[in-house]
């Protein structure tokens, strides 16, 4: 029993992504104690052998590991309070897999350090199906010894780990840069394909050419297909989450005192769509906003 | 001699791209008569067996084929005048491989038709090295019978042909859509990598992660590498040509009465760089403008 408890890892946050990741960990033989604000979402994990905690701090054991996959910076800062960090205590480790701003990562790392807890950032690339299949791409940064300790857990969740050194902020900057590139690609395809459509050219034929040649990569192939087919529900990643990430990108640019004109354009695009009540569709839905602006959808 | 002359194809425009394409045609056994405003550029082709014409119209034979690869719409409209088209005459064919606006293609097709000449649009994707190696991607549209007639020539120049129907404007819209996607990717990487750099994160490490996973495709891999290495000369495709294409994209959007906010942003970026005297560097040089705006290059 002692060994079992010592090896048990905490997991907080069972949204679409967290649920898939936690399920993979259980499948790999990892014992878990899980917490979610809405307890119902933890039910499938309990059936698969996880213990359900009634309070976030109950996921922590002295010197153990807690993984978090939460919606935003405020959720992570709110849940990883002094109570939880005291329960983890010296030798404890928090593997923070949410997409957070670099300033938040720095602040969290300092708070963790005061309790002797290592803070490791590991935001992920991939949709819920990739999370469920253990095929995420992982961006890792934090103290070197803590990174080594996580190898088995990360191998269960990802198909590859890219390391960015000791500063937990670095992995978050990288993740934001990646999400910004994805949103930019969605914007560019939305504009290009609507131009084709308005000129009477088959957007799918344009998409086939471009994604079989110069842009033969997953983002253009998969997101472009959703754009051509105008398939924006169910969302793999909601516009609301995309808007949150664009805000984080713009905050990071402001903190570094540098302009990012395309990030500003995307920030406005997302805000207009949120204002229009479209926060819950997939972020490829940018194409719908563009088609409406182009007069391809009647108001 | 008659057969030889009948089979000889005209080729007008021996810039970096045209020279490579014409060389490939000669290598494939095609006899050529070539014209370039600056005759010196035709010298290597003469050595390889091409005949040099002193006047554009001298590249045309009755019912034959003339290929053009020129810098812009005005050059094509200027050279393919009534004199040249009368020389080509009924059964003649003009294979127009420059990147032109769709409105220009439509206007040229009408003018050609008045002389009984088929106008076929076939803009290409690929840099000068791809042109030289016969590895271009070809976007083809125009009358079906004329397209069939071109199969052997196109096979010598490209690694793949994508067809867009009978309307010559369609291939040009497709090509503009593609160049717009490339410029958008350059802009996005320029902003993302400068964000990483300003936050002290190794831009090359970010580039490696993204282009080995989500963006594992030629445009991101090759152009991103140039951006990370800040290698903007010698140009594969100049900023001045990029600016011309963005103008064509914006003209096509205006003609279709639709906004393209990212195209507008790019148009302004290119104009600012032209104003700064940077027209002759590669268009990945957008990254230099972004790094300067971010305070990463001293003024």
TrEMBL record, chains A, B:
* Pfam families (alphabetical): NAD_binding_11, NAD_binding_2
Give the transmembrane region(s): none
Instruction: Report the residue ranges that make up the 6-phosphogluconate dehydrogenase NADP-binding domain in this protein.
Output: 8-162
Record keywords, A-Z:
NAD, Oxidoreductase
Q: Name one GO biological process term.
A: organic acid catabolic process
Xref: InterPro entries: 3-OH-isobutyrate_DH-rel_CS (IPR002204), 6-PGluconate_DH-like_C_sf (IPR008927), 6PGD_dom2 (IPR013328), 6PGDH_NADP-bd (IPR006115), HIBADH-like_NADP-bd (IPR029154), HIBADH-related (IPR015815), HIBADH-related_NP60_sf (IPR051265), NAD(P)-bd_dom_sf (IPR036291)
Q: Which domain of life is it from?
A: Bacteria
> What range(s) does the 3-hydroxyisobutyrate dehydrogenase-like NAD-binding domain occupy?
170-286
Active-site residues, Swiss-Prot/TrEMBL: 175
Indicate the segments annotated as coiled coil, or none if absent.
none
Q: Name the chain's protein.
A: 6-phosphogluconate dehydrogenase
